[in-house]
Amino acid sequence: MTRLLPALVSLAVVVLLGALLLTGPTRDGLFRGSSGLGDTFSRRDARGPAPDRVGPGSRGLENASANTVTAIVLDYRGFDTLGEVTVLFAAVAGAGLALFGRRRRGQAPPRRRASLILTTAAPFVVLFLFVVGLAVALHGHLTPGGGFPGGALLAAGLVLLMSSTGHEPSARRLHLLEGLAGFSFVTVGVAGLVWKGSFLAHFTGGGALGDFWSAPVTILLYLIIALKVSSELTGAVRTLALVEDPTDKEAP
Amino acid sequence: MIALILLVCIPLVVGAVAVVTVRDLLSAILIEGVVSLAAAVLFLLLGALDVAITQAVVGCGLTSAVFLYSWRRLPEKAREVTHD
Amino acid sequence: MNIVTIVAISALLLFGIGLYGLWSGRNVLRWILAVGLMETGVNVFLVLTGWRPGAAAPIVTEAFSTSGPLPFIDPVPSALVLTSIVIGLGTTTLALALAVLHGQEHGNLDCGDDPGTLEVLE
Prior knowledge:
- The complex is a heterotrimer of chains A (about 250), B (about 80) and C (about 120).
- By secondary structure, chain A is mainly alpha-helical.
- Chain A has helices spanning about 5-25, 35-40, 45, 70-75, 80-100, 115-140, 145-165, 170-195, 215-240, 245-250.
- Chain A contains 10 helices and no strands.
- Chain C has one domain: Helix Hairpins.
């Protein structure tokens, strides 16, 4: 009986939202035809002549990232991305603060050994994760990916290393890396402010669209973000891993 | 294309139902990872490659890792709590 | 049934299932899982708003420089969802830390009508 009300209300919400979308707040309804929502919202762009669109090899552009998602994340919304990294930092710091009193004290209890499969495979997988993570982060302006998945891959490698060897990385180093990355991000932003007159503007010229060096500032920023994200996420997992294990306490 | 989308959307919804109905907490966490992976494939099919990569690495991989680490830190009794 | 309808209904269902999970149980960890489901549903819907039939990934290639309809999806929802996913991990971690705190304090994850729920946070 207690679950009937939530089920009914959830169903009602779904049906209401679905009906709204199907009949549509717009004139035609969002789902009319098979043209997709993208066409509904950007039909003006899709139609009409496009006399001088850019392409690979174009120079002197507003932003030089061939990957337009990266262009939005780091050029048009660069300041917002700084805020995003800050929110991530605040959340992870909050988690650390909440669990601070629960930290294992003194000598850690003897850990259960990692399984043979994990310890054997970990070096190869960790190496692979580091290489792929760096590649994904460095090519964010050309290929899908960028600093966030790149940093998460680096963090995954560190976490795997942590669980296979049983040693947590030192908090001091993680904090140093994280603070350095945050500081560098702001420094790059201020450099743009000094030389080009706006925060996070590209203070160096770029090459042709599609080249690796087409957007040096984007590469730099995504590398910084990758370092920051990886240290933050590793710190988050470390926080949870350092909490005392209640089942360890009961064991002799 | 429609067949492919259906092939991803059906596990997505069925997995979501399983997450809220399955009794075992650990199973729910793992199924949530599968749902996230299905969403990543759906993003891939919709052409949003950046989102697909991020969802696969962050949403599926690291979120599951964080969930599993916290699950291990719970007392024995809390782990075996069933649906309610 | 076209692609947009199928994906939009799946996204709505994910949101609804998450809402039900959030409302029906009293287990904190299940609440966090349910919020994750709702989040996934919203993300899928947002990405869908940028989709266009036959569109490729939003990377400038030769196809872009020719005239005609834009050959790729709208990158703005993608960029927003990218942010949303990363922030989602941060909030999930914070919520899990609080859930672990509650679990170790009370020995269970029941967060229903427990008056002690707020005490832990103080």
